[in-house]
Amino acid sequence: MSGYQIVTLADLDRIEVPGSPVLRPLRHALGVTAFGVNAYTGDEPGDVVIVGHSEPGGPEELYAVVSGHATFTIGEDTVDAPQGTLVHVPPDTFRAASAAEPGTMVLAVGAKAGEVFAPTGWEDFYVAEGMRQRGDLKSGRAALRDGIARNPAAWQGHYNAACFEALAGDVDAALVHLRRALALNPAEVGRLAGADSDLESLRADRRFAEAIG
């Protein structure tokens, strides 16, 4: 057996997290371990396809517009990007993109030179959230556990698990993860938790207020 895989972007899961672009989890679907690769969809003009960010000291990224038409912001420049456009962005440069027409999809590939690739916490949460939305809480929790195990000292994994459990309705489990995240980074987690809509189900519980102070 050669072990190759064939998928189409249209067949990948659509994972929708409020306030974020629609993710097509290509890396997770194929089990790619050498680099990051995912696709993002903007259904309507103006939809965010790539959230504005830079990667200080992080991976360089290549974006390919595989359908529709996107508008990129690269540093201070605005870049018109119809289907077939490739945009290469170095680590320390701001980048963002939005859909310029319906059904815009952008494929993003990234890796950091000289380092072994490791999936990031945001991707674990996206994948787990897609499983939760399908009613597969067991697989979602397993995905989050894998992420925490990769980097147990990172607060993000526990915070993401707290959000997942809060959305799933397990207040006790959510608070366990939230306390662990707070122990690892009290200032950042306290700031985020105070306004995060994912944690709304915890706000009526006195233990939540006690945890975040």
Descriptive notes:
With 213 residues, the chain is an alpha+beta fold. The strands form 2 sheets. It has a 5-stranded antiparallel sheet. A 4-stranded antiparallel sheet has the order 3-8-5-6, with no helix packed on it. It has helices at 26-30, 121-133, 137-150, 155-168, 171-184, 186-193, 206-212, and strands at residues 22-24, 36-42, 48-53, 60-67, 69-74, 77-82, 86-89, 95-99, 104-111.
Average pLDDT number: 91
Instruction: Report the sheet-strand fraction.
Output: 15-25%
Structural class: alpha+beta
Broad CATH class of the largest domain: Mainly Beta
CATH fold assignment of the largest domain: Jelly Rolls
Features:
single chain, 213 residues, alpha+beta, Jelly Rolls, Serine Threonine Protein Phosphatase 5, Tetratricopeptide repeat, five-stranded antiparallel sheet, four-stranded antiparallel sheet, 7 helices, 25% strand
Compose a concise summary of this entry.
The protein has 213 residues and is of the alpha+beta class.
Describe the secondary structure blueprint for this structure.
Blueprint: E1 22-24, H1 26-30, E2 36-42, E3 48-53, E4 60-67, E5 69-74, E6 77-82, E7 86-89, E8 95-99, E9 104-111, H2 121-133, H3 137-150, H4 155-168, H5 171-184, H6 186-193, H7 206-212
Antiparallel strand pairs: 1-2, 2-9, 3-8, 4-7, 4-9, 5-6, 5-8
Helix pairs in contact: 2-3, 2-4, 3-4, 4-5, 5-6, 5-7
